[in-house]
Design a protein that fits this description.
There is one protein chain. With 301 residues, this protein is an alpha/beta fold. The protein has two domains: 8-127 and 283-295, Rossmann fold (3-Layer(aba) Sandwich), CATH 3.40.50; 128-281, Rossmann fold. The chain has helices spanning 13-27, 51-62, 83-93, 104-113, 128-142, 158-169, 186-194, 205-209, 230-234, 241-246, 267-270, 277-295; strands at residues 40-45, 66-71, 96-100, 118-120, 149-153, 173-177, 198-202, 214-217, 252-255. The strands form two sheets. A five-stranded parallel sheet has the order 7-6-5-8-9. Strands 2-1-3-4 form a four-stranded parallel sheet, sandwiched between helices. Helix 7 (186-194) links the parallel strand 6 and strand 7. The protein binds phosphoric acid mono(formamide)ester and norvaline (NVA).
């Protein structure tokens, strides 16, 4: 097992299922572990955040620890101090670091130079804490993600990368509906397919949605992206009533938030009865607490 939580691809299916089980147990109040007593967890933000910042801060406190929120612009990082030196210094003061970074490379360099666990709180390439909360939300609805059809609509971004990683680890079928120019890198897909993931591509959203159990989307312009022609190019991939009606009757809608109503999803869908986006947001708290317990060796299963 890795001492970090940088990508779910670093973890076995059994380990991820253990973390999810722990998250469910904490959410239901069956257990209330405090593995972070006496420990301080730093959080570095190079980009904005509502859910990640608050759910980690609250979760660390609930686990008995002390959160330390740092903004990179207030640190010497903003004046050119290297992430390697920052990692070594932080390792002398705190017990783990969660980082939301502009570049995935920053997280890798942080972990290479730190003696403490590093958690990826979103980079340009991935958002592993989010996918754990998403799978947890699906398990609450369907008991298991195994065998389900998950349909993704729109941009191929950091959140989709995690769905691709998850499709390697868990036996569900991933459909990706997007215009040709917005597909994930071929190397990422080929690797996932070689490892046994069930992934198929669609240009027609209604075909992708047919009988799907979960419809997922995300913003068309992620933090750091240029708007360019994204909104007009991705317009046919909006999740709306027509798309939802093609899905299974019991299908749910997920979105990591923040959302842009009228772009990637209509208000009718995100605020409608099949939407689980606020359970999904809540589950960030429980999933991340479980990740922290796991990293600090307190699995209590
Ligand atoms: N979903 C998510 O990571 O939200 P924030 O950007 O608000 O942290
Ligand atoms: N893809 C989005 C996710 C935000 C939580 C972004 O990177 O901005």
């Amino acid at each position: 097992m890795s001492a970090n939580f940088i990508d779910i691809a670093d973890y076995s299916s059994a380990a991820l299922r253990d973390i999810l089980l722990l998250a469910h147990k904490m959410k239901s109040g069956v257990i209330s572990p405090t593995p972070l007593l006496g420990k301080t967890i730093a959080m570095i933000f190079e980009k904005s955040s509502t859910r990640t910042r608050i759910s980690f801060e609250v979760g660390i406190k609930q686990l008995g620890g002390t959160p330390l929120v740092l903004t990179s612009s207030d640190m010497q990082l903003s004046r050119g101090e290297t992430i390697g030196d920052t990692a070594q210094v932080l390792s002398r003061y705190v017990d783990a670091v969660m980082i939301r970074a502009l570049s995935h490379e920053t997280v890798l360099q942080l972990s290479e130079n730190a003696d403490i666990p590093v958690i990826n709180g979103l980079t340009n390439l991935s958002h592993p804490c989010q996918i754990m909360a998403d799978i947890m939300t699906i398990e609450e609805e369907f008991d298991s993600i195994d065998g389900l059809i998950i349909a993704w609509f729109g941009d191929s971004n950091n959140v989709l990368k995690n769905w691709i990683d998850a499709a390697v680890t868990f036996p569900f079928s991933l459909r990706i509906a997007s215009p040709k120019g917005y597909r994930p890198d071929k190397s990422v897909i080929d690797k996932a397919l070689d490892l046994g993931a069930q992934i198929s591509f669609y240009e027609d959203s209604l075909e992708a949605a047919a009988n799907a159990n979960v419809l997922v989307t995300d913003v068309w312009i992620s933090m750091g992206d240029e708007a360019g022609t994204r909104v007009q190019d991705l317009k046919p991939y909006q999740v709306n009533k027509e798309v939802l009606e093609c899905a299974d009757d019991k299908a749910i809608f997920l979105h990591c938030l923040p959302a842009v109503r009228g772009n990637e999803v209509t208000a009718e869908v995100i605020d409608g009865s099949r939407s689980r986006v606020f359970d999904e947001a809540e589950n960030r708290l429980h999933a991340q607490k479980a990740i922290l317990c796991y990293l600090f060796g307190d699995t209590i299963l």
